[in-house]
Amino acid sequence: MSEDLREKNKKAAEKQKVASAKNEKKEEVKSEIYSADANDLRKKLSNKNAEYVFKLNKYLMEDGFKETEAKEAIDKILPEIVDNQIKGIPANQLYGPVTQRAQTIVHPVKKPKVTPFWASWIDTSLLFFALFGLLYGIVALTSKKTDPNSQTGIITLIVLSVMWGALLTWFNNQMKQPKDKRPGWGITIGYLVVGLVFMFVFLAAMTVVPTSINPALNAIGYFIAAVIAYGIRFVFRRSMGIKERSFF
């Protein structure tokens, strides 16, 4: 019994060794293909793939590519063609019809630009600054008396905008992820609740901060600050190429 088990283990180890050697050989060949000269790769093309490349070159030049541009575009995909050729996959199966591949090269689909967290944070914070500035201006305009414990100082406005900007940017980024990578709703709501608690604690703390440190503006001052913030946001979004909305 023990001898049979040893024999099975031995055979399994040998099979694993052979499989590992094959994989190493495949990786070696693949590495050689992707580092080879394009002219050498053209010589390795099967008749079917060589015809595909010939037609592809023709279509590219008909679409306005210069001869050198067409050759450069095709040279980039030659390693992939040869690699798949070894696996028994011809170019027309790999890329589809020649006309389709030519259109893909001539009119490549641009990957959507990913906005870094810090840029989205600034963008959203500026938006909140503008919204809060408008709100503070309305409050200042409708209030008859000045509250000595007012929380509507300029420092409060700045910090609240930064806090809300960070919280909403984080939330938006989570919602953009694939469903299988998103945190559960329990975790998401937990983070949001903690963020809101911090904000309420901050607002409560600002009531004891003297107006000399946290001065309040008049209604016109807040309206002007809101307009300036929105203008800065507009310029910032254009310079960073941000297309996404801050709110879903």
Automatic annotation (TrEMBL):
Family matches, as InterPro entries: DUF1129, MFS_trans_sf
TM region(s), chain numbering: 117-141, 153-172, 184-209, 215-236
UniProt-annotated stretches for the region Disordered: 1-29
Endpoints of the signal sequence: none
Keyword Nucleotide-binding: no
SUPFAM superfamilies: MFS general substrate transporter (SSF103473)
Keywords assigned by UniProt, alphabetized: Membrane, Transmembrane, Transmembrane helix
Superkingdom of origin organism: Bacteria
Pfam families: DUF1129
Protein name, as recorded: DUF1129 domain-containing protein
Organism: Companilactobacillus crustorum JCM 15951
